[in-house]
Amino acid sequence: MEKYYHITTYGCQMNVHESEKIAGILAGLGYHACESIDDADIVVFNTCCIRENAENHAYGNIGMLKKLKAKKKDMIVAVGGCLTQQIGKAETLHKKFPYVDIIFGTHNLNKLGELILKKQNNKKPVIEIEENEGSVCEEDKPLRTSYPNAWINITYGCNNFCSYCIVPYVRGRERSRRSEDIIAEAKSLIGDGYKEITLLGQNVNSYANGTDDISFPELLQRIADIEGKFRLRFMTSHPKDFSEELAKVIAANDKICNNVHLPVQSGSNAVLKAMNRRYTREDYLKKIEILKKYVPDCAVTTDLIVGFPGESEEDFEDTLSLVREVGFSSAFTFVYSKREGTVAARMENQIPEEVSKDRIMRLVELVNANTREQSLQFVGKTVEILCEDYDEKKNLYLGRSEHGRMAYFKSPTNVVGEFLNVRINSANGVSLLGDIVKD
Ligand code: 5AD
Ligand code: SF4
Q1: What is the arithmetic mean of pLDDT over 86-114?
Q2: Which structural domains are found in the chain, ordered by start?
Q3: What does the alpha-carbon distance between residue 316 and residue 377 come to, in Å, rounded to a whole number?
Q4: What is this structure's pTM?
Q5: Pocket test for ligand 2, best of 12, 202, 206 (most atoms within 8 A of CB)
Q6: Distance 119 CA to ligand 2 centre (A)
Q7: For the chain, what is the mean pLDDT?
Q8: What does each C-alpha distance from 134 to 128, 171, 325, 422 come to in angstroms?
Q9: pLDDT of residue 123
Q10: Using an 8 Å Cβ cutoff, are 12 and 48 in contact?
Q11: Is the minimum distance from the CB of 263 to ligand 1 under 6 angstroms?
Q12: Among the atoms of ligand 2, which is closest to the Cα of residue 277?
């Protein structure tokens, strides 16, 4: 009899790719993917704890499984990822949801197969959280679900300890994979027909720091040198480590997309200092200037946080003015979320919710106006789009430009995975609408 798995993923791209690794492990045990949780023999929640709402979202979904689990006693429920890796959270989770069969963390994701076998031979829940990050997990074979895009981890963990951020506590210290392994993986993916490679790390710019391996710009160059037509992206970059050498490599290679995600978090020097970001507003603007000097049409995207402890109205206005000055092509905006164990959680002057709410609304309005304006600049132009998917509801294909703009268009045949020239007729906020241009 066929066995089925269902994975729910919360949080960032890193987690999406880790769910592909979980899927690889489950496929190795003979499970197949299924659309509905109701049909699954094993359900995995790959959680995130970067903000409180991500955590609550997971708790809500795990709670909703109680009824199904009561009906289907043999169904295995596993919870893993960043949430469970936090100190004491596995025990809390077990108490709250005693029907969860397996609890694992970020550091032992690659052992999920063993934990499942253990559970099958054991009545009691299997709760195993590894405290130490160990080395990098080279052996994980992901089951990729995002053709024509493929993600490759180049670093794991983070050494930056931004004062608001839980990531260094749940993902451990920064470790880099060996460049030859990364290049071999990229080569094999391109050979298999993947058209877009995204290199992943919390701070890709510090790749291989302190080792004798090649630098991040050299790694990009080596991958861009692989034969074939494909796009190369990377995320995330920390502004303090963004170098002129990197800007030059982007400029020199057509395959490297003119699209850089450079999270600024705040436009106020006082807040940046309290966040332990280790750059000033001026440093950030200088980096943007260098980037634009070499790559004038580079689309820069960013992350912004409002309501950090002690953020005054003036500080917030500095963020608004920075957003106006840089003209981000789009931005992710967040309300500061207090994370237990971080330095910022112990700071005085936590900002009242209504103040943060007001600020996020004002910020979103500005960011959206910027994004709309930038989308309009594509209208009337012909843009190369990599088709990624088909939207059944809209009856349209969709894909992105190298700048990361989403475009929708019609096609009589399946064009997923193809590079197409699309003439843009209109822009609708963040996305574009156009027609394929035949050459
Ligand atoms: N509160 C709000 N946003 C956060 N981020 C990280 N930690 C927090 C937090 N405690 C945001 C940052 C980061 C992005 C991935 O998530 O903007 O760049
Ligand atoms: Fe968190 Fe800062 Fe590391 Fe990014 S660089 S993961 S925000 S600690």
Answers
A1: 95
A2: 3-128 (3.40.50.12160), 149-375 (3.80.30.20), 382-436 (2.40.50.140)
A3: 28
A4: 0.95
A5: 202
A6: 35
A7: 95
A8: 15, 11, 43, 47
A9: 87
A10: yes
A11: yes
A12: 2
Residue of 316, 410, 324 whose CA lies nearest to 356: 316
Q: What does the pLDDT read at residue 136?
A: 61
- Cα 410 to middle of ligand 2, angstroms: 40
Ligand 2 geometric centre to CA of 68 (Å): 37
Q: What is the pLDDT of residues 5-30, one digit of tens each?
A: 999 999 988 899 999 999 999 999 99
In this predicted model, what pLDDT tens digit does every residue of 402-413 receive, in sequence order? 999 999 999 999
Cα distance between residue 384 and residue 370, in whole Å? 22
Measured from CB, residues less than 6 Å from any atom of ligand 2 are 158, 160-162, 165, 167-168, 202-203, 238
pLDDT at 137 > cutoff 80: no
**What value does the mean pLDDT take over residues 304-329?**
98
CA 69, CA 403: separation in Å to the nearest integer? 45
Separation of CA 134 and ligand 1 centre (Å): 25
Q: How confident is the model at residue 256 (pLDDT cuts 50, 70, 90)?
A: very high
Amino acid at 50: I
- Which helix (H) or strand (E) covers residue 385, if one does? strand 382-391
Beta bridge partners of 386: 400, 419
Taking the C-alpha atoms of residue 362 and residue 110, their distance in angstroms, rounded to an integer, is: 43
CA 251 to chain centre: 24
Which residue is it, tokens 């071999």? Answer: 184
Of the candidates 302, 170, 318, which has an alpha carbon nearest to the alpha carbon of residue 239?
302
CA gap 324, 239 in Å, rounded = 18
C-alpha 65/C-alpha 59 separation (Å) is 10
Q: Is 378 in the pocket of ligand 1 (CB under 6 A)?
A: no
Contact status, residue 407 vs residue 434, Cβ threshold 8 Å: yes
